[in-house]
Amino acid sequence: MTKLHYAQIIVDVPTMQTNQPYTYVVPESMIESVRPGMRVDVPFGHRHVMGFVVGLRATTELETNKLRHIKNLLDLTPVLNTELLNLSAYLAQETFAFRISVLQTMLPNALKASYERILKIIDDVDEDVRDRIFKGLDEIVYQPRELNVRDIATLTKLRREHKIEVSVNVTNRSKIKTQLAYQFNGDIAFLEDERQDLRPTAKKQVELLMFIMGHLEEVWVKKTLQEIISVSDAILNQGVEKKWLSKKKVEQLRDPFSMTDIIPTTALTLNEEQQNALNHIVASFDAQQYQPFLLEGITGSGKTEVYLQAAQHVFNQGKTVLFLVPEIALTPQMVRRVKSRFGAQTAVLHSGLSDGERYDEWRRIERGDVKIVVGARSAVFAPLNNIGLIIVDEEHETTYKQTDNPRYNARDVALWRGEYYQIPVVLGSATPSLESRARAQRGVYELLRLTQRAGGAKLPVVDVIDMKATLADGPETNFSEQLKNKLQERLNRGEQSVLMLNRRGFSSFVMCRDCGFVPRDPNCNLAMTLHMDSHTLKCHYCGHEEPIPIICANCGSNRIRYYGTGTEKVEAELATLLPEARVIRMDQDTTRKKGSMDKMLQKFGDHKADILLGTQMIAKGLDFPEVTLVGVLNADTSLGLPDFHASERTFQLLTQVSGRAGRAKKAGEVLVQTFNPQHYAIVYAKKHDYEGFYKQEMAVRHAGNYAPYYYTVQIQASHIMENETAKQMIQIARWLRSRVDDKVIILGPSPKPIAKLRNRYYFQIILKFKHRHEMDVLLTELQNRAQKSKNGLQLMIDREPVSFM
Ligand code: ADP
Ligand code: ZN
After folding, report:
1. 285, 312 contact by CB (below 8 A)
2. Which residues participate in the annotated binding site for Zn(2+)?
3. Residue 747 CA, ligand 2 centroid: distance in Å
4. Phi, psi at 751, each rounded to 5°
5. CA 20 to 30 Å from 211, out of 121, 322, 357, 423?
């Protein structure tokens, strides 16, 4: 075998200049140990830094006597596999991020610096190793800097032979929970002799011995063992004395999503549409072909059942499944369903996990102990090998996009991994993103549709209430007469209701209370944002600015107001309107504490409350059979978003929240309060007509040169001086304009809706263009220049931003 003497290393120095692999010499003593995906300690400039080995070579064109040497290995086994290393290169380019940042993002926190790592002997090792490296102990803290290269090589080898184990000490030692277990003897002849010697009356001892002989060398947790064969502690202790088995401490993995009340389920008989969808997915898996599917199925059409049965097929062929959901905390019922089908072979990764819990799950996945990983955005980097199917549920959700560096979209990463493994990727939604639906139109994705509710339930009737009428002849209120009456009705019948208040977000806008008119800017046709400091309305795409109108441009009324309200205010009003109703308020304030959301949902599910009042977060994935009324208090807030996605988000939200009503036997009803009852997003949502909405919205996007007809990049910059930000951004815009042809649309610079944040001033430029990568070179150059200049400007580039706030 040729010796791989040169390592390509990405160093932990996140700058543009160092954003490339450096070549280092692998010392002879490390050649057997080093592998791509391991972290190393290398000299860099005048210091030592951490680096990732991304490749190994036998030769190099560089002058070898000038190359520096790897100082030490920081891992005994790779923390990233080849696939993920490749993915990091692609993502760095795609997101205008440094490769080191992407690599770090892929790892659980516990594997990042500062955490202690523990080496534990788990099998026979040489006395010399035990004495010299382990100082006679079973366990030591791994300090690469204190070990010489030869010792590390020895440890790498032992690790590969499973004679030692590496674990991470996340907070302190006592946090690692252990439990008592027994290791059975493996010497069948000895055990046979022992059995001959036993008196037949020693029934319990015989039982234990027989069990051991049936499970030679296995390790059994004491509790489990005593559940299966009811032997007392005394019997077990006698067994230990006689060397039938030996005591052992094993690590008890913390189960982050322990759901004790999970009842196993089996596959349902699919209806024709479900079966058809499943057949296509399975066929693509069997053909070992990359194929993205768009599973467009109305709420309650049984998409989940299709996912689960596709997953089962994949397991049967010995492969694994990656299952992404928008946000685990909001979809506990989805996790429950996966767990009840696949049990302990499910790993759940979500943002509520502590570093230690997350690391435990990560290790189970890496060891191959799980078949399916369910998780939110960052779970897309789960170290699964052998993936056979990737599912992205609610693919239109913006939570798949990371808003910090690196700004990746998990949906795109899923597609990349799917192509790498040549497998099907299923994107599912009742309201697909326009981008995905358009790709299905062009045949890039295969479209699979579920048009009926499974299990026979009916879609709820949606009524739209015109709030202009309510407010015309009454005081300011959040409740129309109709909604009040329907709520009362539910109370009388002992049924439950869900009320959704569209959260305002960061930006606000004005709306005419008499006609629902929202002032839009003449260039971009977007709702303008209220800026109280300058008393103006601004379009922050193109920078257009005008005074706040005193009378409505549409109807001449003078009741043009700032629009928005909070959940607390609504809760108070509800208390006066329906004093006997038991209300649960669910918003960012009340759900901040870990686990509180699950508790609230549990409480509502147990019918210990009549009304669940919440923000958008309640629209997602909840499934309560007793809910027969869903009320949307203010559909207009999302229509007033200063973003070209405003109509799409409104349609999605209304569809999703309507899906919460009448999930089971009892028919459901939905009331939508709005000042704009004629808006097409509301009209199509009322009719449950995604396809109709899609067609009309595509025309609107086409007319406005928006996605999916154009690609969008947002350039954002901030500085502590407002005029400095503006000045720099004007220069950048000018520079860009001088370098592109006039087919590229450049909007701005303009101040962001939240213009000032943490003492910095934010401006943005928006680029729209036709070919996905046509701006890459220019944008990379821009980032390069921004890095080099020392003027205090912070610049970020965001491809396909999901929010323009
Ligand atoms: P979706 O994920 O598309 O919103 P779900 O998977 O939640 O839909 O299905 C809605 C309901 O219909 C669930 O209660 C589910 O158990 C039930 N269901 C799904 N498929 C079938 C089927 N083939 N036969 C009977 N009931 C089904
Ligand atoms: Zn504009």
Report:
1. no
2. 512, 515, 524, 539, 542, 552, 555
3. 8
4. -65, 150
5. 121
Q: 344 CA distance to ligand 2 centroid (A)?
A: 53
Ligand 1, atom 24, residue with closest C-alpha: 455
Buried/exposed code over 728-763 (b: 16+ C-beta within 10 A; e: otherwise): bbeebbeebeeeeeeebebbbbbbbbebeeeebbbb
Q: Read off φ and ψ for residue 393, nearest 5 degrees.
A: -85, 145
Residues 467 and 612 in one domain: yes
Mean pLDDT by 10 residues, the chain (805 residues): 86 86 94 92 88 93 89 88 95 93 90 72 83 82 77 85 75 53 86 87 88 80 79 91 88 55 80 97 97 95 96 95 86 82 87 78 88 94 94 95 93 98 97 97 97 83 89 78 94 92 69 84 81 77 84 86 75 92 86 76 89 84 77 86 89 86 72 94 95 97 93 92 90 93 90 71 92 91 80 89 79
Mutation test residue for ligand 1: of 263, 268, 303, 305, the one with most atoms within 8 Å of CB: 305
Q: Are residues 150 and 63 in the same domain?
A: no
CA atoms of 92 and 16, how far apart (whole Å): 11
CA dist., res. 604 & res. 626, Å (int): 10
CA of 428 to the centre of ligand 1 (A): 14
> Which tokens in the block code for residue 93?
């380019």
What ligand is nearest to the CA atom of residue 764?
2
Would the CB of 455 count as within 6 Å of ligand 1?
yes
What are the DSSP calls for 487-507, one per residue?
HHHHHHHT-EEEEE-----S-
Nearest ligand, measured from the Cα of 271: 1
The verdict on whether omega for the bond into residue 801 sits within 30 degrees of 0, i.e. cis, is no
Alpha-carbon span 537 to 540, nearest angstrom = 9
The long-range contacts involving 529-532, CB below 8 angstroms and separated by at least 24 positions, are 529/642, 529/753, 530/562, 531/751, 531/755
Q: Does the beta carbon of 340 lie inside 6 Å of ligand 1? A: no
ω into 27 cis (within 30 of 0): no
Atom 26, ligand 1: residue with shortest CA distance: 455
For the CA of 299, the closest atom of ligand 1 is 4
Ligand 1 and 452: CB distance under 6 A: no
As a whole number of Å, the CA-based R_g of the chain is: 30
Give distance in angstroms: CA of 304 to centre of ligand 1: 7
**Domain end (from 191, 221, 251):** 251
- If asked whether residues 101 and 74 sit together in one domain, one would say yes
* 283 CA from centroid of ligand 1 (Å): 22
What is the value of pTM for the model shown? 0.81
SS3 at position 747 = strand
CA-closest residue to ligand 1 atom 21 = 454
Residue 576 and residue 638 in one domain:
yes
Q: Are strands 529-531 and 583-586 parallel, antiparallel or unpaired?
A: unpaired
Please give the residue range of the domain that contains residue 324. Answer: 272-443
Q: Which ligand is nearest to the CA of 454?
A: 1
Residues with CB under 5 A from ligand 2 (ion): 521, 523-524, 539, 541-542, 544
